[in-house]
Amino acid sequence: MIDFRPFYQQIAASPLSDWLETLPLQLRQWQKNAHGDYAKWAKVVDFLPDLQAKQINLQSAVEAVPNQPLSDGEQQRIIYHLKQLMPWRKGPYHLHGIYVDCEWRSDFKWERVLPHLAPLQGRTILDVGCGSGYHMWRMVGEGANMVVGIDPTELFLCQFEAVRKLLNNDRRAHLIPLGIEQMQPLAAFDTVFSMGVLYHRKSPLDHLSQLRDQLVNGGELVLETLVIDGDVNDVLVPADRYAKMKNVYFIPSVAALINWLEKCGFKQVRCVDVEITSLEEQRKTEWLENESLIDFLDPYDHNKTIEGYPAPKRAVILANK
């Protein structure tokens, strides 16, 4: 099983130290109720070899360059283990000559977001709904002091730990398997990311307030979410599913989203990017057995989802506490 004690030791003398009042008990309870396959997935991480990379590149990719090329047999063994952790959603990863081609080209999103951010150098960062942690490693590559991701999905935790092991066991990023609603208000993070989460929340204003509670005064929120065209009063509330997802509740216009953020007390709220999700950014690969974007769109009109709603469009909003 994955050992969180190194994280406890790391935050004990940091601005996150108050978290130790609640976190260890929460994680003990989490382990008692973890997914039935968690033990199997955690063993996959144990089975991966301890390889020391010659170079770690987190600035232009998430990449471990091997000391010497692995044999075909060594590569196939690692691929076999990593594929026990499918589906791989967010990536890609370049690990000792192995290309993990995930469903999402998350590097596309990072390249759209990064130019607009306050510099991440030396910052303590929270990534809410971090998935397998791809963007966390890119944050480390930008010089973040510590990046903490939270995501309650056990598979993502094991994917993250597998990647960490192949990145020379780098300890500048950590994934904690909790949701933000389980976090006490720490007011300790310089930057908080919430990307691809808001539309899954039944109460979006509560989510925005929870994000604000984790920021230091003056800290920056980076919010990326689905949006629709429209004015301050336009919000799509799907009747059943949206792009085959059953847990999509509210998709606002950019103007409505800015209004929500201002109602939650954020300042300097600004939209810095709007992009229609392309079939190059989200697609099927050999690392994904499930359906992907092409299956979620109207086969005769890619401007609509299969249910007839506007096709996925995503905006990046920055705001300050």
Please provide a written account of the structure.
- By secondary structure, this protein is of the alpha/beta class.
- It has a single domain (4-320), classed as Rossmann fold (3-Layer(aba) Sandwich).
- Helices cover 29% and strands 25% of the residues.
- The chain contains 10 helices and 17 strands.
- It has helices at residues 5-11, 23-32, 38-47, 72-83, 106-113, 134-141, 154-166, 204-214, 254-263, 293-296; strands spanning 53-57, 63-66, 90-91, 93-95, 98-100, 104-105, 124-128, 146-150, 173-176, 189-195, 215-226, 235-236, 251-252, 267-276, 297-298, 301-305, 313-320.
- Strands 9-8-7-10-11-17-14 form a 7-stranded mixed sheet, with helices on both faces. A 4-stranded mixed sheet has the order 1-2-4-5, with helices on one face.
- It is globular, with a radius of gyration of 19 Å.
Short overview:
The chain is an alpha/beta fold.
**Rg, nearest Å:** 19 Å
CATH architecture: 3-Layer(aba) Sandwich
Which parts are unreliable, with pLDDT below 50 for 5 consecutive residues or more? none
Would you give the CATH topology? Rossmann fold
* Overall form: globular
Pattern of helices and strands: HHHEEHEEEEHEHEHEEHEEEHEHEEE
Number of separate domains: 1
The overall pLDDT average reads 97
The number of strands is 17
Q: Report the sheet with the most strands, covering strand number, pairing sense and barrel closure.
A: 7 strands, mixed
How far apart are the first and last residues' alpha carbons, in Å?
Answer: 37 Å
Helicity, in percent?
25-40%
Number of helical segments with 4 or more residues: 10
What is the name of the CATH superfamily? Vaccinia Virus protein VP39
Oligomeric state of the chains present here:
single chain
Organism: Chelonobacter oris
EC number: 2.5.1.-
Keywords: Methyltransferase, Transferase, tRNA processing
Binding site for carboxy-S-adenosyl-L-methionine: 90, 104, 109, 129, 151-153, 180-181, 195, 199, 314
